[in-house]
Specification:
The chain has helices spanning 2-8, 31-48, 77-84, 103-109, 125-135, 160-168, 207-237; strands spanning 51-54, 66-70, 90-95, 113-116, 139-142, 171-177, 188-191. With 242 residues, the protein is α/β, with parallel strands linked by helices. Strands 1-7-6-2-5-3-4 form a seven-stranded mixed beta sheet, sandwiched between helices. Helix 4 links the parallel strand 3 (90-95) and strand 4 (113-116).
């Protein structure tokens, strides 16, 4: 009952767990994921041929617990995240309904995906697993818009991303992925610089702070979209070679 009371009072429930050691380069439980990463990387790169744009101070190199947020206009956005941070294992938060029986359950389960129930976030076992991924010094990617949708604007970010950030103090790296992304069409990806939780709020684990973080990440992502729009405009004005 304590968790429900805390939730009603606007406090993020906090389960005490033993701190984990930093992630290792090789782990047997990630063997399938690493093999698939190795075998598919070159094919995925040629399919998307990503063009990267960077906010000042941004980089594709990250270390430690990292929470990547990305726009979600098409299913290929997950491939864009994998290619952007190709030096690391990328774990993804996904809706639980995608983990049905059979191949999907095996494939997603062995490729670093974490199932989370839609709706009641605090009752989700998957949410705790996502927190564990970050506390294990790994990279976790989330699509905070909540699903594939309107490709013309950055939609509202759900507070769940803020809760994860508050509970782990992970570095936040926002991405904007060109909404026209598709296989065999060059992808444009704008990478934002790392943001710490302390830059966005006072760090107290409250629902209000979680919403503040979500809203500010949305604003930052809109700034990244502006970088992409300006790039397109310059490209249109650039004279063609004779």
């Amino acid at each position: 009952m304590k968790s429900s009371e805390e939730e009603q009072n606007g406090v993020v429930p906090n389960k005490q767990k033993k701190p984990k050691k930093p992630g290792k380069l090789f782990r047997l439980k990630f063997l399938v994921q690493d093999i698939i990463r190795f075998l598919s990387w070159i094919h995925l790169w040629f399919m998307l041929r990503p063009k990267y744009l960077f906010e000042e101070g941004a980089t594709r190199k990250t270390k430690g617990k990292t929470l990547v947020t990305s726009t979600h206009g098409k299913w290929a956005d997950s491939i864009a995240v994998i290619l952007t941070f190709s030096s690391r294992r990328a774990h993804f938060v996904m809706a639980e309904e995608f983990f049905n029986k059979g191949f999907n359950k095996w494939f997603y389960g062995h490729n670093g995906c974490v199932p989370i129930k839609r709706g009641n976030l605090f009752d989700s076992e998957g949410f705790d697993k996502a927190i564990d991924v970050l506390n294990d010094e790994r990279l976790l990617a989330i699509f905070p818009e909540g699903g594939i949708g309107n490709v013309d604007t950055v939609r509202r970010f759900k507070a769940g991303v803020g809760i994860m950030a508050l509970k782990t103090d992970a570095k936040l790296v926002p991405l904007y992925v060109d909404a026209r992304i598709s296989l065999f069409r060059r992808a444009h990806i704008v990478v934002g610089k790392e943001i710490s939780v302390s830059e966005l709020c006072d760090g107290e684990q409250t629902i209000e702070n979680a919403r503040i973080i979500a809203n500010k990440l949305k604003e930052k992502t809109e700034e990244l979209k502006q970088i992409y729009d300006e790039y397109l405009e310059k490209k249109k004005r650039k004279p063609k070679k004779q």
